[in-house]
TrEMBL record:
Protein name: Transposase IS3/IS911 family protein
Gene Ontology BP term (one): DNA transposition
Keywords: Coiled coil
Entry's transmembrane regions: none
A GO molecular function held by the record: transposase activity
Organism: Halanaerobium hydrogeniformans
InterPro entries per UniProt: Homeodomain-like_sf, RD_transcriptional_regulator, Transposase_8
Amino acid sequence: MPTRYPEEIKRKVVTLANNGKNQTEILKEYGIARSTLHKWIKHYNNSGSFKAKDNRTDKENELIKLQKENKQLKMENDILKQAALIMGRK
């Protein structure tokens, strides 16, 4: 199970990296994977947030919206099919 780090630790680590501290030292000191550190730096510098929803592009948001809508329409379609079968029996 992945380790969850508090926002304060993430901010501190990103601030250290942005202020020029050696990233290898940060990784050793905090026990963070290199890819995790890079992701935190990228997200925080882009939006000031570590949350995925705050770092999505417009296309990613549109895709998620369309996927939800598609799921809803499929469910409605299944309900209508069941209703048609029931009404056809009567």
